[in-house]
Design goal:
Helix content is 26%, strand content 25%. The chain is of the alpha/beta class. The radius of gyration is 17 Å and the shape is globular. Bound molecules: fe (ii) ion (FE2) (2 copies). It comes from Rhodopirellula maiorica SM1. Keywords: Metal-binding.
Length: 260
């Protein structure tokens, strides 16, 4: 199975780039599945139900989110009722949304998608290790192809979760910091890993936001709205190939500059 996972879609530049390129990329890269972290699609924070529907229509198989999940509150009903989107599995059970989902892939297979939030330098959430153990038990033998988005601030947090899942899932791919890391690899047990796959959005920025505004507030402590930046838009992610047993056979970084 060939899967492209794209990192945090940031604001209009990232969202538009994914909408326009999802279907062409599926063909060009001969993808079986396209999964996207969409937590920053709505003007840099959150995802709207309309955006969810348009991304599905454009060729995105499934979406993960992150700590900004409820910035657009109306996404709650989509989370509760839609099949192609998951909440972090270590969110409270009372929160709307599924802890995992499966999608049929182009090649006729089935791919499970799970999202986990880290706990270092992040708001408190339930234990990701207990959550993923529970989810993997629920998935059971429904599919061996399992993609885990680990949405966390600290590389050590992501590595620990990645190593914990080595040999139990197809890929553990990091999001949230919006900067691609150069550590894509396959662990000894056959799990593909990358600390952060990078964002889909403007790279002439501070993690997607206007450089001047972020710098001003950082220097003066005077709050202001951080507009989404506009320049050097790129789609970033990772392409993972796996065998029939769900073991990763390759991982490569994906990066595509989008012309204005
Ligand atoms: Fe993000
Ligand atoms: Fe995040």
């Amino acid at each position: 199975m060939r899967i492209l996972f794209l990192g945090d879609v940031v604001g209009k530049p990232g969202y538009t780039a994914v909408l326009q390129n999802a279907e062409p990329l599926r063909k060009e890269l001969r993808l079986d599945a396209l999964v996207v972290n969409a937590e920053n699609a709505a003007d840099g924070s959150g995802l709207t139900s309309r955006q969810y529907r348009r991304l599905v229509d454009a060729g995105v198989d499934a979406m993960t989110l992150g700590d900004h999940i409820f910035r657009e509150k109306e996404i709650a009903k989509t989370l509760a009722t839609s099949k192609r989107i998951v909440k972090p599995a270590n969110f409270p059970p009372e929160a709307p949304g599924k802890c995992w989902t499966t999608v049929k892939t182009s090649g006729g297979g089935s791919l499970a998608i799970v999202s986990l939030l880290g706990r270092v330098f992040m708001r408190p959430v339930d234990c990701p290790f207990i959550a993923i153990d529970r989810v993997l038990e629920e998935i059971g033998d429904k599919t061996k192809q399992i993609l885990v988005d680990v949405h966390a601030e600290a590389t050590s947090d992501k590595q620990t979760i990645g190593r914990y899942l080595d040999g139990r899932v197809t890929a553990v791919l990091g999001t949230h910091t919006h900067v691609p890391t150069a550590d894509a690899c396959i662990f000894p047990g056959g799990t593909a890993f990358q600390c952060d796959v990078g964002m889909c959005g403007p790279y002439a920025s501070i993690i997607g936001r206007d450089i001047k505004r972020v710098t001003q507030t950082t220097r003066t402590f005077e709050p202001c709205h951080f507009h989404v930046a506009t320049d050097d838009v790129r789609l970033c992610g990772a392409i993972v190939q796996s065998d029939v047993d769900g073991r990763a056979t390759s991982i490569e970084r994906f990066e595509r500059r989008i012309d204005k």
